[in-house]
Structure formats: structure tokens, C-alpha cells
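tool_log.txt
---
The assistant was asked to compare two proteins side by side. It first ran the structure predictor on the initial sequence, then on the second. Raw inputs and outputs are pasted verbatim so the downstream comparison step can read them without reformatting.
(1)
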Amino acid sequence: KLLTGGVEREIDSWPSAMGNFCRSRTSVSLLAVENTSIGPAHTKESLASSCSGGTRDFGSRRKGSLASGAPFPKRPLRCKLSSQVWKRLEELFQKMDPDGSNAVTREEARMFFKGAFGKLSADAMFDEVDMDNSGAITAEEFVQFWIQVRKSGYKDQELIDELDELLDGAAWVDWKESKQAPKAIGFPRRPMLCRLSAPCWQKCEELFRILDCDGTMVINREKAEKHFVGAFAKVSVDAMFNELDPNNHGQINAKEWMKFWLQVRSSGYKEKDMMEELENLKEGSTWVDWKDGRSTE
């Protein structure tokens, strides 16, 4: 029997009922009852007992997750790119995205480019097109790059010829699109009238820089796994990426990082609680699931 909403109900299968009735307390498989009102306060239950049989493991659920993005956009009116170029762009993007997830990962790009320089071509493309350093190229990023190439003076026919070669697996070329070299990406500044105080913002930045051990301003899984300590390091990494990388791009940049902590603050958590948890995380403590009003399913 299971008590829900003050009503005692008969259940035939306890494990299946628990699967519907419970969700992970954290992404490291800590339990919380789904329909129970949960306030901002949170505690760290024992991972050893919480990760025992019957709970769902976000780590294993995400193992087959795909990078994702919005569908390929329609060509706008008065677009600098002709319909012939646009059609080839969509065809090329779809060939690079064999799983149809609307995002091209570096691994997919390396599989697409042929020959001895396949890896170099993939890396060169990402250096030019993956402007937010997310680890995946969305259709919007792909289109915007080619619009910029067109604006820089290349003719439609030149683009068509090069796209046809790329469709056949030719090497990526370095487009001299006359755009300014991107400025070094720094940590975002705290805006005026921000819900996070300056000390809390600084502590968020400190934790980000600890996780970003090589200073490239992105956190990937390898870096995170080096930071979290203990037997549950990997599940902590999976939990963090489950919340901060919803599109499964494999990397978390500084903008996404601060957007997440602003959402946590807006959901009702007190700064004192956040500061304490951030300090714990700096020491490699286990990641907790913040009830910030977003679904991590």
C-alpha cells in the first residue's frame, strides 16, 4: 500500500509504482517524492544508501544522450544567401548530423570529413563556426557563419562550388570572411540590479575557474571528473551536466554557468544556502539537485 495525497492506495507492483511515484532527489539518484511540496532548503542524504537498488541513475540514462538543437531554419526574405546556397547548406548540415539531432558534434564532423586530414578539417570548422564554444554546432550557428562569409564579399557561385566539394567530403577551407577576430572570452560581469550579490557572483566565478582547470572558459566532462572527489565523482559530473547542459553539447560555458545560478536564486534559495553549497563544491563535494523550477528529465 502507498499513501499519496492522504489516500491509501493498493499497488500491484512496488518497483513500478516507485518508478512513477518518485524522481531523483538529485541527479546522483537521491530520492524525492514528486508530488510533495519541496522548499528551497535541501540536505545531502547518504549517497551510499540512496544509490542502492530501485532508484534511477541519471548517469546511465544520459549515456546515450545526443547533442541537440533547433530544426534547420527557413530561409528568410531578403537573405544574402540565394535559395540554391541555402538548400546546399541544409543538405550539408544534415549529412554532418547523421543522428538527426539538429546539432553537429566534433565526433560527427570527424566522421564526415574524409582522408588523412579529417580531424584537422573538423577542428578547423569548429574553430570558425562554434562561436559559443559549446562543443556542438547548431543549425543557427551554421547558417549565421555562411551569411557572414557571403557578406564578406564571396559570390554565390563561389559558395555553391565550395559547398558541393564539402558535400563530397573535401577538406574544410579557412574562409577569410573579414570578420574581426573574436575577443578573448572572459567571465561575464555581474549586471546592475542582479539577484545575486557581488560576493555570491564572485564565488560562482571561483568555482567555475576551479573546474575550468586549463583556463579555456569551458567546462567539459573530463575537467569535471578531475575535480569531484570520492566514489561518486562520476555521478556528480553526470548530475551537473544534466542540469547545466540540457542540449547535451558536452561543454558548459561561463554564460550558461551563471544563467543556471541566477535561476537557482530566482527559484527561492537564500544566498546563505547558495554560498555554503558553492564553498562545498569548491572542495570537491557532491553535486546536489537544485529545485530551480526546471525539469531535468
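(2)
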Amino acid sequence: EVEFIRVPKDSLNSRFLPIHELTDKNNPHSNIEAVFMVDDDVRVDCGSMWEGFEAWRHHPSALVGYYPRLASPKLHPNIFFTSKTRMVYHTWPIVYSRQKFNIILTKASFFHKKYLDLYHNDKENPKEVLDYVDEHKNCEDIAMAFLVARHARQGIPTTVRPQSSFPFYCVDCPIYIHGKIQDQGLFNGISTSGGSLAPSGHMEKRSMCLDDLTEIYNRTRGWDYPLWDVPLSDQSWSHTFWWLNSPSNFYEWFS
């Protein structure tokens, strides 16, 4: 059975609107806790989807998905990426070379339904974040990654919270699933068609989002930057040797 949900506003934030059937206690579907989010130009094969769901069942408060990304401070200028931002958004090649990540893209992911409510709760996710997403028509997935990471941090005693990395296995940190994915939007999607290396391209916009959302967090709530780095092998569902890690789509190497 397929049900289409009409949303009141054409907004990327609408993808995270709470689903009434999952929250209404009188509805037979209200006991469902997992949400599988996927873009309309992404195809996940059944085996990969099942593996992702199994991983989520063991980590129900984590973002579980097939596209790991890394946000990291800019170390030094280079000829390939001259970002003007403090934080830099990296795709699979850097995730692999540094063997760590801190974001799972929601374009193909599992997460708990509670995050749909929290995303639209001003006390948990400032309204200014939603306004920013609407204005820039981008970065709703980074906003969700910030939200989930902040809640994961709340479950860790202050005495063992790291500044930017996690020294041991973290049950609520993002989980990477190596799957079989067809992604028609990797090079010509809505947000990537500008070219990742162009000054006004996708990568620069994503890096700007990291800086701007961090500034909103700090200015409106006094919250710190929420993301922390986790080891790729430790936070991969397959737990393979680092040199055997591979992306869910071959073309991720060129993203």
C-alpha cells in the first residue's frame, strides 16, 4: 500500500514533516518507529535495504545510511578547493583517505521517527535553521545531522565527551552501510549540477552551510558545533579492514 502525503509548502524541510499515521496512537501504524528516507533518483537494492534496517534496529537513535560525509576544519589552501569557509564539506574520497566521517546523508537513510518531531520543534532545532534551508534550498540533511548529533552527545557524560572525535565505539553515532546503490542524481541532481569544484558549486555551498548553521546554533541557543568524527571501520556495519572499505556507488569516488 502506497500513500502520498500532500505537504502545505514546497520546501526541503517538508521531507522531515512528522507523519500523522506514525504518531496517532489510534492508528495501527503508530507502533512503527523506523523511517526510511530516500531521494526519488536513488535506488537501493532489497538486500542493502534490509541490511540498513538491521543496522538501525541495533542503533535506533543513530542516523544509518549509505552516504558518509566528513565536515572538518580547513587545514590550508590547496589548488583543488579554495574554500573561504572555516569548515569544509568532504565527500567519499576524503572520507576514505582520512578513514573517518561525521555525517550520514539522509538521501538514503534510516532514522527514528522522533527526529521528525524534533526537527520542527523550535526548542530542539531553531526556526532560523529551517528559514536558512528555505532561503538557500539546500542543507536540510546537514541540519538533520546536526540535530541527531546533538542528541547523541546528550547521552554521553560530560567527562568523556570529546571536542571533535570519539575515542571508542559509539552506539548513537552515525552508522555507514555499504550497499548497492543506483544514484542518478550524483552528478546532475538539483544541488550538484553546478559543479563541485566551481566557486559557487555544490561543495562550497555545503561548506558555507556548516559555518552558517554552526553560527545559528551558537547565536540563538549558545550550542556548540555538534558533529564529531568517528572511525570509518568502527562505525561501518560490516566492520571490515580499513583498506577494504568501499562506497555504495562506484561514482562516489568522483563525487
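---
observation on (2): The chain has seven helices and eleven strands. The two ends are 35 Å apart (CA to CA).
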